[in-house]
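Table S2 (text version). Query chain:
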Amino acid sequence: MTSDNGFPGLADDSVLGSPHSELLGAEFVSFDEETATATMRFTVKREMTTWRGGVQGGLVAGYLDDVMGYAYVAATGGEQAPLNLEISMQLLGLLPAGATIVGTGRVVRGGRRVIFLEGDLKSEQGQVLARATSTAIPTARPVPPPDGIE
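Corresponding structure-token output:
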């Protein structure tokens, strides 16, 4: 099932409109079922950057976590979400304020007990800016409370 928001398995924007994705300036682009790969765009907000002119390293992990997580959510038809046990990341370039970053996340292997994910962030010109791998466990996809986050 593909919803109006373009996200397979999700009939509404409950996950896509989550506070963390809004903070990251996330936009879901596509999901390739054959390769279990999600593509997203992120608009880098000034509030995410340091005086060096790029996104703070720990916050870069948030972009990677988002796109890898959505790959798994889409691969399970919106039924499950990963809970990270470990993320390993390589920072290869700055993500500057105002830039549009393209993220891809892939499900390398999705088992009943352990999930292996990988992701990368690229500039619009195709330069790899960061890469990550994640080991996670499958969980039921969380749903926001009826009145939003309290």
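Notes on Table S2: The beta strands are 26-32, 37-43, 80-91, 100-110, 115-122, 128-140. The chain has one domain: 19-140.
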